[in-house]
Amino acid sequence: MNSSETSESSGSTRDVVIAAISLIALAASWYMNSTTGSTTWSILFLLSQATVISIIIWQACDPFADAAQWIGTTLRLPGSVRGATLDAVASSMPELFSGIFFVVLAISATDVGKDELAAATGEGYGATVATCAGSAVYNMILIPAICALVIARYRPDHPTIDVEDKVISRDGLWFVGCEVLLLFFLFQPAMEWWMGVALLGAYFVYLLVLYRDAKLYQKRYGFVKQQIVDGKTNDEIVDAGKTQNLKLSRDTIQKLRGQEPGETEDDEEPPESAGVLFGFFDVPLSFKTAWIVIGISTIVAAIACYWLVEVTHATATTLNVPIFFVAVILAAAASSVPDTFLSVGAAMRGDDDGAVSNAFGSNIFDLCVCLSIPLLVGSYLNGWQPILLTQDGEPMQGLNGLRILLCSLTIITLLIMWHNRQLTKKKAYILVGLYGVFVAYAIAGSLGYSF
């Protein structure tokens, strides 16, 4: 057994131990809660359920991601396009299903009256906004910080996460643009169905940009490789590229020189199998089995998300706080587990760019798709009436603070990444502190001190 196989085996064993401890904690808290009935054990029982749910979601999304990667590479989809579509769906399924269930369950639990239905729809969609926005903050701040801390420990020869310009100039700025569009909608008196269509349209334009970039890379790659075959120097290739309106850097050319003939950044071997149950079982992949894996994983993730929504409601009821503040932390963190493992795995493989861009790509999917589909579902169930995010004519409690924090934390995080284009251990601690500010906002809001 080589070192990589040993590492994978030890990682799987560690993951199983974590899952076993979580199940034991769930059983113990359930027993103590059923025998004592105390609020403390009730909260611990709910938190234990959330932990187990996050593990189930993680294990459902892992084989989904393997199958999606197999389909994407087999169909020769550009890596950037596959990452923003199939990979984004794989890691963002929890936010999508949770948002739909928040809306549907809120409506199904209310009376048929018009006013009650409108209020329930607003409450359900408010929890959806809180979950997706909280997940966006988690992905944007905590995931890069976790990656940086992991790399600082396990890659001492190069203990930093290098952030390429395109991650900030393309994915980061697109996320800011989608965020500005969302904030504009959230500052309106109500959310309407066409706003969901507009968000989906923004995501479609993002896909077109990714597709254009992938095609441009392939054009640059073919040109540079031909110039290398002709024996041109790096400077000569740069000059020749100008005649073809191709902007080339010497670093890019040198990187391409090191690739094997016919190899590009988007050339990958599709995974032969999908790992199931912590990778202890492998399902050989073909077009038939890949879609079966995706179908089963989707069903398992949907069931887990339904459970997560119920736990979120129960936690809010037990603590006697608005569900908005529970969703913004508990549901958001539990649903972001797949994104965390996807990015950490990319960083451990040396794919620093992927580790950060995965988080931004997932955020764009969350804001554009995971918020728009529940909005369309809620609008349909509410007779296509506007969804009011208000209480007694005032903005929903916590919504103003969420708007401000989402915008300010995004700008601060991008500036931190832009500085020297690196994430260091020190910067990771700063990011963790920023997430602590976000958690403090949720706690203060739950205690009635929101703004």
Approximate helicity band? over 70%
- How large is the count of helical segments? 15
Outline type: globular
Strand content: under 5%
Strand order in space, largest sheet:
1-6
Characterize the largest beta sheet: strand count, sense, and whether it forms a barrel: 2 strands, antiparallel
In terms of structural class, how would the helical and strand content be classed? Answer: mainly alpha
User: How many E strands?
Assistant: 6
Could you list the spans in which at least 5 consecutive residues all have pLDDT below 50? 1-10, 260-266
* Helix/strand order: HHHHEHHHHEEHHHHHEEHEH
Q: Average pLDDT across residues?
A: 79
Number of domains: 1
Distance between the termini: 57 Å
- Evaluate the radius of gyration: 23 Å
What does this structure look like?
There is one protein chain. By secondary structure, the chain is mainly α. Helices cover 77% and strands 4% of the residues. The protein is built from 15 helices and six strands. The strands form three sheets. It has a two-stranded antiparallel sheet. Helix 2 crosses helix 10 and helix 6 packs antiparallel against helix 13. It starts with a helix and ends in a 5-residue tail after the last helix. The N terminus is likely disordered.
Question: Could you give a quick summary of the protein structure above?
Answer:
With 451 residues, the protein is mainly α. The protein has helices spanning 3-36, 39-74, 79-108, 114-154, 165-186, 193-229, 234-243, 250-257, 287-319, 323-335, 337-348, 352-370, 372-381, 399-418, 425-446; strands at 161-162, 273-276, 281-284, 390-391, 394-395, 422-423. It has 15 helices and six strands.
